[in-house]
Amino acid sequence: MSAELRVDPIACEAHGLCAELLPERIVLDEWGYPIIDRRPVPEHLLAHARRAASACPTLALKLQRVGGTPDRTNDPDGTSARRREA
Hints:
86 residues; alpha+beta; two-stranded antiparallel ribbon; 3 helices; globular; disordered C terminus
């Protein structure tokens, strides 16, 4: 699984916890807001990236899957793929 970090700049309040937990991918600007390395998070940093995202006090940091097939529970027509298979 490839994943990348995203930050919601509106929700972020510049606590800086993310940069403390994941300095390999996040640095702070002069006001304390995160600057995110947009490259995919390597496998050996995924656990740290998950921890940083879950520790964000405002839930502004997200770890998202990239590439491959999207994890969808509903199709565009609104029906669940599992329900159609049954």
